[in-house]
Amino acid sequence: MNMRIHIKGGRVIDPASNTDREADLFIANGKIVGVGDTAPAGFESNSILDATGCIVCPGLVDLSARLREPGYEYKATLESEMAAAAAGGVTRLACPPDTDPVLDEPGLVEMLTHRARLPEFAHVHPVGALTVQLEGKALTEMAELHEAGCIAFGQANRAIVDTQVLLRAMQYAATFDFPVWLQAQDPFLAKKGVAHDGEVAARLGLVGIPVAAETIALATILHLARETGARVHLTRISSAAGLEMIVAARAAGIAVTCDISAHHLHLSEMDIGFFNAHARLDPPLRSQRDRDALRAGLASGAINALCSDHTPVDDDAKQTPFDEAEPGATGLELLLPLTLKWAQEMKLPLVTALARVTSDPARVLGLDAGQLAIGAAADICVFDPRAGFVVTRDALRSQGKNTPFLGLELPGRVRYTLIDGHLAHDGAWG
Amino acid sequence: MSPVRNTANPQLNAHGELQHLLTIEGLPRDVLTRILDTAAPFTEVAEREVKKVPLLRGKSVFNLFFENSTRTRTTFEIAAKRLSADVINLNINTSSAAKGESLLDTADNLAAMQADMFVVRHASSGAPYLIAQHLAATGRDHIHVVNAGDGRHAHPTQGLLDMYTIRHYKKDFSNLTIAIVGDVLHSRVARSQIHALTTLGVPEVRVIAPKTLLPTGVERMGVRVFNDMKEGLRGVDVVMMLRLQNERMQGALLPSPQEYFKSYGLTPDKLALAKPDAIVMHPGPMNRGVEIDSSVADGKQAVILPQVTFGIAVRMAVMAMLGGANA
């Protein structure tokens, strides 16, 4: 059936067009056909969604969400995590290649994108492995993987130790203008490290990861980006010094983009408290000064995007001493609330804050998405900014229940999520 | 913003009494003093013909050692037995952990055997916290946890016995200069000593080590950092030596035990820079000729063997206070 949806009475915020006004939204055939007070000529809705008191914005675009398939279905499944995405207003996401098997063969990527092609599922963009098995030795068949649906190539959290291989991988990707997504962390300086090498690690006796692990790896990547002309996106930067290097590199003409996780936007090493394994994250939570620099950098746009870094971890892998705990936290359902919280605390206009989770990450993906233009896909998030959301295990749709934000009340509750005009989440009565 | 749930110090109960002993950090001065005061009469128990008091009669103390340590385990065992407790020793290195049982499964199983107290040693920093938090979350906080050394984090009974020793010889903490010498980076003993000394009001706590053996930002724990041992020992009242693990003597941290001894070994020459009545302490086991010269270790300023004796009394005091708090 051809759904013609009228989203009525909301406040439309579309960062791509710098729009923030009361307006209705009209959808037909999965596309946006009108924004304004009156329906386009001939439009007759067969479904009305009441958005009174709500904000209507583009569905969120998340640059890193682990779906755990294939291989880690005991941690999460496509079904559980797609329900989480819809509940969180996320309509498009990129997933890193560190599955089991690793996303280094076209067949695996095709299987994943095929499985993900359900109307209520967010659009899934796999990031293909840059090297076979993520081992940092041999290049993957990037052209084939690209045809199978990979939008970029990366190493997840695993470094390429051999700089010769890193250079070649970037050269090869640049040949086809494929984006290269890299996390900057020197594996030697990070060896056995579980926390920021600072005050808290010193006190708790945890093995530290110095900021230099990030800056040294960044220096290498930035030099090679200049050499090769590869389109580099730096994932999950964690330090003020790292951000400064990226800003300086841009000023010197190297076109790099970067993102941070929502955890690093709000938390610091202090949040480890008494060995709270929920705060065991990769990269580690750094100092408050670092966190404040990241908050400002995201506000100014020096950091291009905010991502959830959604990593469902099973309880057994967290109910261990801090240094044995698996890093990561669930995040898809917290991305919007944590964005809103940051916007409130920084007194940012919502149109700016929401840009970092909609149009800006879409631009990093190289896609014409994350916007409410006429003719665009109707990927939409309708949320009540005044309703609160208490983070509890039961409230989370994700199979991953572990997050450092458990027990906290966060602003923003998603009412409706539409994907290609399909109502993927209806939280009106939730 | 601080969303972390488990920021409450789990060591103290609602009345401010000691529920567990997990670290010295954050314990009020009067709690530390009370432990030392409680330990004093227990030193006499050892001199009696019947070396036992009935304070923990009928209680079961489980020594859960996930990391080998004959010495610490033995002192806890003696302390518990002198309090008339039943003591069960488990070297989990060689049993459950090898079969893949998780730390909390092990704790659950032993709790089901009506344990009253767990004495825990583990190679991971924070492991005793995990057990204490788990017991609280499952309504079994009548079981007390004593940290017998966790990773690099804490060894609170060692810190306390060191305080007992210092108080025994120096009476007052408020006019002392104390140097901790050696591998602070990897040392749970050093961290516990630093917290205890600063809490008890020692005006100057120094750490002396090469830069490779100091944690980043150690000065924020309230210590003065010296890289030159001679400079650091000048005028101190107490020298607290740390053990250097064999595997750290040669490699990227230090070039050789010989070179370490030359710069950071406690020799009579270097000790002469301290006050004439300075005492020398070591948590044991010692590496003679690496961190300490034999003539110092066996010399008249050394109080290393009294430390061991006091250690039993201090552990008795800790277990008696915990067992009594919720008996």
How would you describe this protein?
Chain A is of the alpha/beta class. In chain A, the strands form three sheets. In chain A, strands 1, 2, 3, 4, 5, 16, 17 and 18 form an eight-stranded mixed β-sheet that branches. An eight-stranded parallel β-sheet of chain A has the order 6-7-8-9-10-13-14-15, sandwiched between helices. Chain A starts with a strand and ends with a strand. Chain A has helices at residues 78-87, 106-115, 142-148, 163-175, 199-204, 211-228, 240-251, 262-266, 288-300, 335-346, 350-355, 359-365; strands at 4-14, 19-28, 31-36, 47-50, 55-58, 60-62, 90-95, 123-129, 152-154, 180-183, 195-196, 208-209, 232-235, 256-261, 305-307, 380-390, 409-419, 422-426. Chain A has a single domain, classed as Metal-dependent hydrolases (TIM Barrel), CATH 3.20.20.140. The mean pLDDT of chain A is 96. Chain B folds into two domains: 29-155 and 311-325, 3-Layer(aba) Sandwich (Rossmann fold), CATH 3.40.50; 156-307, Rossmann fold. The longest helix of chain B has 22 residues, at 304-325. The model of chain B is unreliable at 1-6 (pLDDT under 50). The chains are: A alpha/beta (430), B alpha/beta (327).
